[in-house]
Amino acid sequence: MCVSFLFFLTYGDDDCDIHIMLQRNVIAKRSIRRNPSESSMPLPRITRDTALFLDFDGTLVMLADAPDAVVVSQDLHLLLSELAALLQNRLAIVSGRAISVLRELGVGDFTLVGSHGLEIAMANSPIERADRPEALDTVISALEKFAATRAGILVERKPLSVGLHYRLGPQYEGECRTITETLASEHDLFVQKGKMLFEIRPKHGDKGQGIRELMTRRQFSGARPMFIGDDVTDENGFEAVLSLGGDAILVGEPRASAAQFLLAGPAEVVNWLDMARHRMKKAKV
Ligand SMILES: [Mg+2]
Fold first, then answer.
1. CA separation for the pair 55, 148 (Å, rounded)
2. Which helix (H) or strand (E) holds 198?
3. d(Cα 34, Cα 45) in Å, to the nearest integer?
4. What percent of the chain is predicted at pLDDT more than 90?
5. E strand or H helix at 9
6. Residue 222: band (very low, low, confident or very high) from pLDDT cuts 50, 70, 90
7. Helix, strand, or coil here: 231?
């Protein structure tokens, strides 16, 4: 059975209002009207008892041609820092990237879930990490040989997985799919499809698992979880927060998703988080 959700999104700074009919499994309609007010925003409110889980790439920052081309602005860092303080540190970045890379990018000293739930680091704490697959070096070596003869194909080494990016070589998508599926099958690993990316990683672990684990920690337990993400790899996270009585927000173009709500892109996410920050600071509750 399909369940429909009809709602309005408003962006105070952009002076535009997106009216969206979103059905579970089927996105039916999208139109835009002008001059909204914040009071008509039906998105779930971030409140002091929210546990806020945020994907990184494509959610807080625009996707880049190469994974290391992403820049975390000072404004974004400040926004996340203030939100974390307002939420008593119940804010976590939940990413497919390795935690070490998130830290190098200057994401901040927040709780971090990396490598699709296979790594967790509480704020300013060491990384708790699953075992590294024994075959990973063999797989990386094979992918680097593959990429060496195909312009634009990038191999991203991660502590527990390896990503094969074809954003700069989209004509190789089919070959990238074939080699990653073959290698994963040979070494009892799993291919995670992302945006212009095939990632080979252990069969266990996903973002939902990482969120569920955090919700058992004292810092997060008892709060109402909310997860915002853009990719198919975020669907497990959406399902996790929904099963825990929380809210899920998809970022990007409407598509089939477990999420109940939609924001158009990283700029809209940041704007909406900024409004929540100001509202909570003003309310002091
Ligand atoms: Mg993403």
1. 30
2. strand 197-201
3. 22
4. 70
5. strand 4-11
6. very high
7. coil
Tell me, in angstroms, the distance from the centre of ligand 1 to residue 57's CA: 4
Q: How far is the CA of 283 from the centre of ligand 1 (A)?
A: 31
CATH of domain 50-62+85-124+205-283: 3.40.50.1000
Residues 95-137 pLDDT 10s: 999 999 999 998 888 999 999 999 999 998 999 998 999 999 9
Q: State how far the Cα of 26 lies from the Cα of 73, in Å rounded to an integer.
A: 35
- Residue 266 Cα to ligand 1 middle (Å): 10
CATH class of 136-201: alpha beta
pLDDT digits 0-9 by tens, 244-253: 999 999 999 9
Question: Could you say which DSSP state residue 45 is in?
Answer: P
Distance CA 51, CA 46 (A): 9
Active site annotation includes 55: yes
Torsion of CA 223, 206, 97, 251, to 10 degrees: -60
Domain boundaries, given as residue ranges, for the chain: 50-62+85-124+205-283, 136-201
Token digits of residue 12: 């105070």
Considering the candidates 17, 55, 206, 234, report the single residue annotated as catalytic: 55
Question: In Å, what is the CA distance from 234 to each residue of 78, 117, 162, 194?
Answer: 24, 11, 18, 10
Residue 113 structure tokens: 């879930």
285 C-alpha to ligand 1 centroid (Å) = 31
The residue length of the chain stands at 285
Q: Contact at 8 Å (CB) between 117 and 208?
A: yes
